[in-house]
Amino acid sequence: MMAGNGSMLFITDTDALAIRKADLLTEEVTTVATGVNSWGLGQNESGQIFATDRGSTPRVVSIDDSGNIFVLAGGSAGCNDGAGSFATFRSPGGMAFNPSEGDFYVADTDCFRIRRITQTGNVTTVAGGTGSFTADGPPSVAGFRSPTDVAFGNNRLFVNDDNRVRIVDITSGYVVTTLAGSRVNGRSDGIGTNASFSELDGIAYFEGQDGVGMVVTVDDTAHNVRLINAETAEVTTIAGSPEGLSGLQDGTSSLFNQPYGVDATADGGIIYVADRGNARVAMLTLTNVTIDETVTEEQLDETTLIVAIVVPLSIVLIIGFVVVGWCLYRSRRNKARESKETIPSGGGSSARASIFGSVPLHDPSDIKIFEKLGEGNFGTTYRAKLINNGTVVALKIPKHATAFSTDDVRELNALMGLHKHPNLLEFIGIVSIEGKVCVITAFYARGSLDKLHHKIDMVKEKRFLRIVRDVASGLKAFHDQNMIHRDLACRNLLMKSDGVVVIADYGLTQKVEVDKDYYMQHTSTLPWAWTAPESLRTRRFTTKSDIYSIGVAFWEILTKGKYPHGKRNVSILENHPARQIATGELKLEIPGDSKASDASRELVYSCLSFEPAARPSAYELLRKLEELGYAPTFYPGNVFLRVHEEAHKHDVSSPSAAGGYQDPIEVRGDVDGDVDGDEDTLRTDAGATYGRRANEKSEPDLRDGVEEESKHMYAKHETTQFRAKTA
């Protein structure tokens, strides 16, 4: 089924071997073409119809206005890529059109793969195809069990695969992840892999009025329609029997009998369902409960503030914050022994480390694991060593093969995409251990700044301004690459053994489109105490909101680790501090008894300005530091150059040639003699990013998605909510 241009709805009538067209205005139904056993339809930018054909000569065809059929590719059974008749299909199912490429994607069920087809008939496989199995990861290791239909949205493909909904990310090289469902058959709603499906057929994608991507799918044998938030992975039954009963009934207590096709209007206002057992097409309408757009920022109604939880009684679907489980690569090498001390050698060295795209893939035999540094909800971080070159690293091992969260995926994308910079977390590579993707990053012995407030005097001007310089330098490089961090705090700033500070934890990082200077947040939780006032009001994040966050981090340093605005444990009530921050009623003040210098105070207060325009950019911070005698520099090789105006005039879409600014610390090692070097102070970038020490009480974790978080340091976003009924 396909909602075509205008008022047209196209239906694949498989029993009649026909493609039908229904004019929704006149309610007239006509036959477009016959002799096609089609399970998938697509329409290009000019309105031409394309279809898959699962008949005796599996193929993809185009259809002209007169109903004439032209073979685009295929014509015989097989799984070969190629052009025109050289390509073969086995059971081409659903298809989707990518308007930015002008190409189609087809779910080839019995070839267990997703195929890409140009409008000239060239066929390539983008993911899957080595057999019927379920595995997430890059195309070389990803597997599908029974892909039936595919939908396109936001540069991603959403695939119904047996009883799972999978995502194929086009922008990341067709990496496959699981959005929802698991190997368990069922009808349960829930989050990600906690939800269950029975037998998925049709799938469609739309964006709600708030811009949140939504996936709608039909469960054939469960006889219902399910809605999935593409960002949070929350699955909800919106029509049909939750108990899996079949029947024929309209209204809010609708019943279906083997629904197999589905599509939606662009905004999701209407969802069309092909109800096969009842030989009908049903129409569902989703009633959006939206924020009143006439409310001004000055009024600051609760519905416009992130931390306000206002749930109308009429809402029957609550799209909440969750964590999407990301399934990992299948191991392509021999399994390593289960040992905390070493991973056995199996021949080879890190000289054999292969590259998948730009990601170094290390052999597990090249890594020796030492003590545990921290443990989080999704994995454990160890100090480790690359045997080939002796480099000490941090290694994060997921607890389970399905334990990669959305934030982990976002962070890995950021690590892979960022240019190397001395003030940004150094990404070393990944290693596959027993089917789990383990992330390797640099090891920073002094750990995160929030653990150093009482071990190092970071308040005195010389050291403090060096920290400011390092953070501003890293942040400038970050912003130059169109990245917004959104979680800058002392806990995510790490110190090297020579005193240089780097920015870590990219779990909330978002890349901003080149023609925009902001990112709009729709879901997820945020550290409210570090979030800029305008972001609390509008959910819009810019480079200037990052500046506010580092202002809070600098305030942490000057107050020797005090918690912003007094306390962590607060309830979501009308007097929540975030509301006062958003209005400007509550501002951070540096205590009068702080030993902070006037220059340090001035820098911090400039970053904490209520108005974004009054805050300096990262570049302007560097210029101010230069005036104070802490000249930021960048270095090609060993030649150090002072920053100047021309360094700020490059295109923001590409970083400067040297990747940013860095001034070497004159004294190496224990700069002030105030670090005891005790092993207990060790904390790694991965510790800050992925986990905490087992003997530490865990702070609310950004990736948990539990309600308790919203009572602590992270404020919860509301998303547009829906009420569904059948028409």
UniProtKB/TrEMBL annotation:
Principal location class: membrane
This protein's UniProt keywords: ATP-binding, Membrane, Nucleotide-binding, Transmembrane, Transmembrane helix
SMART domains per UniProt: TyrKc
Name used for this protein in its record: Protein kinase domain-containing protein
Residue span(s) of domain Protein kinase: 367-634
Pfam families, A to Z: PK_Tyr_Ser-Thr (PF07714)
Coiled-coil regions listed in the entry: none
Gene Ontology terms for molecular function: ATP binding; transmembrane receptor protein tyrosine kinase activity
Biased composition (Basic and acidic residues): 693-720
Cell location: Membrane
Transmembrane spans: 305-329
Gene3D superfamilies: TolB, C-terminal domain (2.120.10.30), Transferase(Phosphotransferase) domain 1 (1.10.510.10)
Recorded catalytic activity of this chain's protein: L-tyrosyl-[protein] + ATP = O-phospho-L-tyrosyl-[protein] + ADP + H(+)
Binding site for ATP: 396
Membrane topology reported for the UniProt record: Single-pass membrane protein
Organism (species): Lotharella globosa
UniProt-listed GO biological process terms: cell surface receptor protein tyrosine kinase signaling pathway
